[in-house]
Amino acid sequence: ARDFETFGREHGVDPDVVAAILYIETRCGAYTGNRVALRQLSRLAMVNEPGNLAENIKRLKIKEAADYSPAEIERIARERAAYLQATFYPEVLAIFRLGAKVGINPAGIRGSSAGAFGLPQFLPSSYLRFAQDGNENGRVSLYEAPDAIHSTMHFLRENGWKPGISVKEKRAVLWQYNRSDPYIDTILLVADKLSKN
Q1: H or E stretch including 67?
Q2: Of 52, 49, 57, nearest to 74 (Cα)?
Q3: Three-class SS of residue 14?
Q4: Of 67, 74, 119, 171, which sits most exposed with the smallest number of CB within 10 A?
Q5: Which residues are CB-neighbours of 93 under 8 A, at least 6 positions away?
Q6: pLDDT tens profile 5-64
Q7: Is the pLDDT of residue 197 over 90?
Q8: Cβ-proximal residues to 48 (8 Å cutoff; 6+ apart), any chain
Q9: 140: burial class by Cβ within 10 Å (0-12, 13-18, 19+)?
Q10: Mean pLDDT score of the chain, rounded to an integer?
């Protein structure tokens, strides 16, 4: 509670929103993922590789044949593959920079199926840009609550969160965290319930 209050004042971020994020992402650290983040990021970054793309198109043409024409399936698959490559190839590079920065083997970082890790489920580039040492022990571990809280608040502030922002502005900031309207709806609902306790 002290960390939420202290960092909330420092960053001008609603502690209930950060608590909601940590709860929704990992049940406050109860499950942070057990997959090798480097493998997951690499898998997503390579979706646009010709062999992978052809295999995905073939699989989708069988699975989605009733709903889409073969041309639509191919277009959708190509657009999605290009998006994933553009999103996750930089994350593969970032996890190597992260490993070098903190002196750990990047293959030892475990997280979600999308390669996100820690209590707030940051991608490696978010760690490099926003991670903060909340407990002042000289290192940043997103698996430790003070660091996770401080880092998440820093992320939100740097993406435009400030005291008194409108719901529309809150949604725009949270969109930078997770580009899903149902996710944002859930975060705001949980934060509202927390604020009433």
Answers
A1: none
A2: 57
A3: coil
A4: 67
A5: none
A6: 999 999 999 999 999 999 999 999 999 999 999 999 999 999 999 999 999 999 998 898
A7: no
A8: 81, 82, 84, 85
A9: buried
A10: 96
What b-and-e string marks burial along 99-132, b requiring 16 or more CB atoms within 10 Å of the CB?
beeeeeebeebbbbebbbbbbbbbbbbbbeebbb
Site of tokens 């698996």 = 143
Q: d(Cα 167, Cα 170) in Å, to the nearest integer?
A: 5
Buried b (16+ CB within 10 A) or exposed e, 24-62: bbbeebeebbebbbbebbbbbbbbbeeeebeebbeebee
d(CA 29, CA 52): 34
Look-up: residue for tokens 């509202």?
192
CB 95 within 8 A of CB 108: no
Of 146, 99, 105, nearest to 127 by C-alpha is 99
What is the per-residue pLDDT across 62-83, written as a single tens digit (0 to 9) for each?
Answer: 898 889 999 999 999 999 999 9
Query: DSSP states of 88-132 as a string?
Result: HHHHHHHHHHHHHHHT--GGG-EE-TTS-BTTTTB-HHHHHHH--
Report the percentage of the chain scoring pLDDT > 90. Answer: 95
